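**Reference record**
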Amino acid sequence: MKHPWLALAGLGLLGAFALLWPVTGRTVLGTVEARVGGGGDRAAGAAARVRPGLERDLAASSLRFGAPVFIRIFKAESELEVWVADGARYRLFRRYPVCAWSGALGPKLRQGDGQSPEGFYRVTRGQLNPRSQYHLSFNLGYPNAHDRSHGRTGDFLMVHGSCVSIGCYAMGDDGIEEIYTLVSAALDGGEPAVPVHIFPFRFADRAEAGWRDEPWADFWRNLREGHDAFERSGRPPRIGVAARRYVVTEATAP
Protein backbone atom coordinates (compact mmCIF):
# COMPACT_ATOMS: atom_id res chain seq x y z
CA MET A 1 0.00 0.00 0.00
CA LYS A 2 1.43 3.40 -1.05
CA HIS A 3 0.21 5.34 2.03
CA PRO A 4 -0.45 2.89 4.89
CA TRP A 5 -0.99 5.79 7.31
CA LEU A 6 -4.14 6.71 5.37
CA ALA A 7 -5.57 3.25 5.99
CA LEU A 8 -4.74 3.49 9.68
CA ALA A 9 -6.37 6.90 9.91
CA GLY A 10 -9.46 5.54 8.18
CA LEU A 11 -9.69 2.66 10.63
CA GLY A 12 -9.30 5.08 13.50
CA LEU A 13 -12.17 7.23 12.23
CA LEU A 14 -14.35 4.16 11.70
CA GLY A 15 -13.59 3.00 15.22
CA ALA A 16 -14.51 6.41 16.60
CA PHE A 17 -17.83 6.39 14.74
CA ALA A 18 -18.45 2.86 16.00
CA LEU A 19 -18.07 4.02 19.57
CA LEU A 20 -20.19 7.16 19.15
CA TRP A 21 -22.97 5.89 16.89
CA PRO A 22 -25.02 3.09 18.48
CA VAL A 23 -27.59 1.34 16.30
CA THR A 24 -30.44 -0.45 18.15
CA GLY A 25 -28.17 -1.41 20.99
CA ARG A 26 -25.17 -2.31 18.83
CA THR A 27 -22.32 -0.32 17.36
CA VAL A 28 -22.11 0.33 13.63
CA LEU A 29 -19.30 -2.21 13.43
CA GLY A 30 -21.41 -4.78 15.22
CA THR A 31 -24.33 -4.18 12.89
CA VAL A 32 -22.16 -4.41 9.79
CA GLU A 33 -20.54 -7.57 11.11
CA ALA A 34 -23.93 -9.23 11.59
CA ARG A 35 -25.10 -8.24 8.12
CA VAL A 36 -22.00 -9.47 6.31
CA GLY A 37 -21.92 -12.80 8.07
CA GLY A 38 -19.91 -12.23 11.24
CA GLY A 39 -21.14 -14.22 14.21
CA GLY A 40 -22.10 -17.18 12.07
CA ASP A 41 -20.42 -19.54 14.53
CA ARG A 42 -22.21 -18.04 17.53
CA ALA A 43 -24.61 -20.97 17.80
CA ALA A 44 -21.75 -23.45 17.47
CA GLY A 45 -19.81 -21.60 20.15
CA ALA A 46 -22.82 -21.62 22.45
CA ALA A 47 -23.35 -25.34 21.87
CA ALA A 48 -19.72 -26.06 22.67
CA ARG A 49 -20.14 -24.28 26.00
CA VAL A 50 -23.47 -25.71 27.12
CA ARG A 51 -23.82 -29.09 25.44
CA PRO A 52 -21.61 -31.06 27.89
CA GLY A 53 -23.66 -29.86 30.85
CA LEU A 54 -26.95 -30.42 29.06
CA GLU A 55 -25.95 -33.96 28.08
CA ARG A 56 -24.91 -34.72 31.65
CA ASP A 57 -28.13 -33.36 33.16
CA LEU A 58 -30.34 -35.02 30.55
CA ALA A 59 -28.64 -38.37 31.10
CA ALA A 60 -29.13 -38.00 34.85
CA SER A 61 -32.88 -37.82 34.12
CA SER A 62 -32.74 -40.70 31.62
CA LEU A 63 -33.32 -38.27 28.75
CA ARG A 64 -31.39 -37.90 25.51
CA PHE A 65 -29.78 -34.84 23.93
CA GLY A 66 -31.37 -34.42 20.50
CA ALA A 67 -34.71 -35.92 21.52
CA PRO A 68 -37.88 -33.94 20.63
CA VAL A 69 -38.57 -30.96 22.86
CA PHE A 70 -41.66 -28.93 23.72
CA ILE A 71 -41.70 -25.41 25.16
CA ARG A 72 -44.30 -23.75 27.35
CA ILE A 73 -44.21 -20.08 28.41
CA PHE A 74 -46.27 -18.61 31.26
CA LYS A 75 -46.46 -14.83 31.11
CA ALA A 76 -47.62 -13.93 34.61
CA GLU A 77 -45.06 -16.23 36.23
CA SER A 78 -42.32 -15.16 33.76
CA GLU A 79 -41.25 -18.76 33.24
CA LEU A 80 -40.28 -20.82 30.22
CA GLU A 81 -40.37 -24.62 30.49
CA VAL A 82 -38.45 -27.07 28.31
CA TRP A 83 -39.96 -30.56 28.14
CA VAL A 84 -38.06 -33.46 26.55
CA ALA A 85 -39.56 -36.63 25.09
CA ASP A 86 -38.64 -39.91 26.73
CA GLY A 87 -40.46 -42.03 24.13
CA ALA A 88 -43.96 -42.38 25.55
CA ARG A 89 -44.31 -38.95 27.17
CA TYR A 90 -42.58 -35.62 27.57
CA ARG A 91 -40.93 -34.87 30.89
CA LEU A 92 -40.07 -31.49 32.35
CA PHE A 93 -36.34 -30.95 31.98
CA ARG A 94 -35.78 -27.37 33.07
CA ARG A 95 -37.52 -24.11 33.95
CA TYR A 96 -35.93 -20.82 32.91
CA PRO A 97 -36.88 -17.36 34.19
CA VAL A 98 -38.09 -15.03 31.46
CA CYS A 99 -35.90 -11.96 31.88
CA ALA A 100 -38.35 -9.63 30.12
CA TRP A 101 -41.62 -9.62 28.17
CA SER A 102 -43.74 -6.63 27.30
CA GLY A 103 -47.34 -5.49 27.31
CA ALA A 104 -50.06 -7.05 29.44
CA LEU A 105 -51.84 -10.38 29.75
CA GLY A 106 -53.68 -11.18 26.53
CA PRO A 107 -52.73 -11.76 22.87
CA LYS A 108 -50.78 -9.52 20.55
CA LEU A 109 -53.19 -7.60 18.31
CA ARG A 110 -51.28 -5.37 15.93
CA GLN A 111 -47.86 -4.30 14.70
CA GLY A 112 -46.28 -1.87 17.13
CA ASP A 113 -48.52 -2.51 20.14
CA GLY A 114 -45.54 -3.75 22.16
CA GLN A 115 -47.49 -6.81 23.21
CA SER A 116 -45.93 -10.27 23.64
CA PRO A 117 -48.11 -12.94 21.97
CA GLU A 118 -50.10 -15.78 23.49
CA GLY A 119 -51.16 -18.87 21.59
CA PHE A 120 -49.85 -22.02 19.93
CA TYR A 121 -46.76 -21.68 17.72
CA ARG A 122 -44.22 -23.93 15.98
CA VAL A 123 -40.49 -23.37 15.38
CA THR A 124 -38.77 -24.93 12.35
CA ARG A 125 -35.12 -24.88 11.35
CA GLY A 126 -35.61 -21.78 9.18
CA GLN A 127 -36.85 -19.80 12.17
CA LEU A 128 -33.56 -20.10 14.07
CA ASN A 129 -31.34 -17.02 13.96
CA PRO A 130 -27.72 -17.54 15.08
CA ARG A 131 -26.87 -13.92 14.15
CA SER A 132 -29.48 -12.17 16.23
CA GLN A 133 -28.86 -8.69 17.62
CA TYR A 134 -29.84 -10.31 20.90
CA HIS A 135 -27.20 -13.05 20.89
CA LEU A 136 -29.34 -15.99 19.64
CA SER A 137 -33.03 -16.16 18.81
CA PHE A 138 -35.82 -18.09 17.17
CA ASN A 139 -38.94 -16.72 15.54
CA LEU A 140 -42.23 -17.87 17.06
CA GLY A 141 -44.06 -17.70 13.73
CA TYR A 142 -46.48 -14.97 14.74
CA PRO A 143 -49.01 -14.34 13.23
CA ASN A 144 -50.17 -17.95 12.97
CA ALA A 145 -53.40 -19.04 11.27
CA HIS A 146 -55.46 -18.18 14.35
CA ASP A 147 -53.90 -14.73 14.62
CA ARG A 148 -54.50 -14.05 10.94
CA SER A 149 -58.13 -15.13 11.21
CA HIS A 150 -58.57 -12.29 13.72
CA GLY A 151 -56.73 -9.77 11.54
CA ARG A 152 -53.80 -9.54 13.91
CA THR A 153 -50.57 -8.10 12.53
CA GLY A 154 -46.90 -8.04 13.43
CA ASP A 155 -43.70 -9.89 12.68
CA PHE A 156 -40.33 -10.94 14.07
CA LEU A 157 -41.72 -11.98 17.45
CA MET A 158 -38.87 -13.92 19.02
CA VAL A 159 -37.54 -15.83 21.96
CA HIS A 160 -34.06 -14.33 22.28
CA GLY A 161 -31.16 -13.46 24.54
CA SER A 162 -30.46 -10.16 26.29
CA CYS A 163 -32.97 -8.72 28.76
CA VAL A 164 -35.01 -6.21 26.74
CA SER A 165 -38.35 -6.82 25.06
CA ILE A 166 -40.65 -5.03 22.64
CA GLY A 167 -43.09 -7.87 22.10
CA CYS A 168 -40.56 -10.71 22.42
CA TYR A 169 -39.56 -13.05 25.23
CA ALA A 170 -36.04 -12.19 26.40
CA MET A 171 -34.28 -15.01 28.21
CA GLY A 172 -30.85 -13.53 28.93
CA ASP A 173 -27.79 -14.77 27.06
CA ASP A 174 -27.08 -17.73 29.33
CA GLY A 175 -30.66 -18.95 29.16
CA ILE A 176 -31.02 -18.63 25.40
CA GLU A 177 -27.78 -20.54 24.81
CA GLU A 178 -29.24 -23.64 26.49
CA ILE A 179 -32.74 -23.25 25.04
CA TYR A 180 -31.50 -22.57 21.50
CA THR A 181 -29.08 -25.52 21.69
CA LEU A 182 -31.85 -27.90 22.82
CA VAL A 183 -34.21 -26.68 20.07
CA SER A 184 -31.52 -26.92 17.41
CA ALA A 185 -30.52 -30.43 18.52
CA ALA A 186 -34.14 -31.59 18.45
CA LEU A 187 -34.58 -30.28 14.91
CA ASP A 188 -31.31 -31.92 13.87
CA GLY A 189 -32.56 -35.12 15.45
CA GLY A 190 -35.62 -35.26 13.23
CA GLU A 191 -38.32 -33.26 15.03
CA PRO A 192 -40.00 -31.35 12.17
CA ALA A 193 -41.04 -28.41 14.36
CA VAL A 194 -40.78 -27.59 18.05
CA PRO A 195 -44.15 -26.60 19.55
CA VAL A 196 -44.15 -23.43 21.67
CA HIS A 197 -47.32 -22.88 23.70
CA ILE A 198 -47.71 -19.50 25.39
CA PHE A 199 -50.24 -18.99 28.18
CA PRO A 200 -51.23 -15.94 30.23
CA PHE A 201 -50.68 -17.77 33.54
CA ARG A 202 -50.66 -21.22 35.10
CA PHE A 203 -54.28 -22.33 34.86
CA ALA A 204 -53.83 -24.83 37.69
CA ASP A 205 -52.97 -21.94 40.04
CA ARG A 206 -55.87 -19.63 39.10
CA ALA A 207 -59.49 -20.68 39.45
CA GLU A 208 -61.60 -19.56 36.50
CA ALA A 209 -63.81 -17.61 38.89
CA GLY A 210 -60.89 -15.19 39.26
CA TRP A 211 -60.63 -14.41 35.53
CA ARG A 212 -63.97 -15.33 33.93
CA ASP A 213 -64.94 -11.64 33.67
CA GLU A 214 -61.68 -10.56 32.04
CA PRO A 215 -61.90 -9.30 28.42
CA TRP A 216 -59.85 -12.26 27.15
CA ALA A 217 -61.61 -14.96 29.20
CA ASP A 218 -63.06 -16.78 26.15
CA PHE A 219 -59.68 -16.79 24.40
CA TRP A 220 -58.01 -18.10 27.55
CA ARG A 221 -60.56 -20.91 27.84
CA ASN A 222 -59.62 -21.89 24.30
CA LEU A 223 -55.91 -21.86 25.26
CA ARG A 224 -56.70 -23.92 28.33
CA GLU A 225 -57.99 -26.71 26.08
CA GLY A 226 -54.46 -27.15 24.73
CA HIS A 227 -52.90 -26.75 28.15
CA ASP A 228 -55.12 -29.40 29.72
CA ALA A 229 -54.73 -31.82 26.79
CA PHE A 230 -50.98 -31.85 27.39
CA GLU A 231 -51.44 -32.22 31.13
CA ARG A 232 -53.55 -35.34 30.55
CA SER A 233 -51.54 -37.07 27.85
CA GLY A 234 -47.99 -35.86 28.46
CA ARG A 235 -47.67 -35.16 24.72
CA PRO A 236 -48.20 -31.88 22.84
CA PRO A 237 -51.67 -31.90 21.24
CA ARG A 238 -52.30 -31.32 17.55
CA ILE A 239 -53.50 -27.78 16.96
CA GLY A 240 -55.77 -26.63 14.14
CA VAL A 241 -57.88 -23.55 13.50
CA ALA A 242 -61.56 -23.41 12.55
CA ALA A 243 -64.19 -20.70 12.94
CA ARG A 244 -61.50 -18.38 14.35
CA ARG A 245 -60.78 -20.71 17.27
CA TYR A 246 -58.05 -23.18 18.05
CA VAL A 247 -59.08 -26.79 17.55
CA VAL A 248 -57.23 -29.06 19.97
CA THR A 249 -56.82 -32.78 19.36
CA GLU A 250 -55.29 -34.64 22.26
CA ALA A 251 -52.24 -36.71 21.34
CA THR A 252 -52.39 -40.46 21.68
CA ALA A 253 -49.61 -42.69 22.95
CA PRO A 254 -47.06 -43.61 20.24
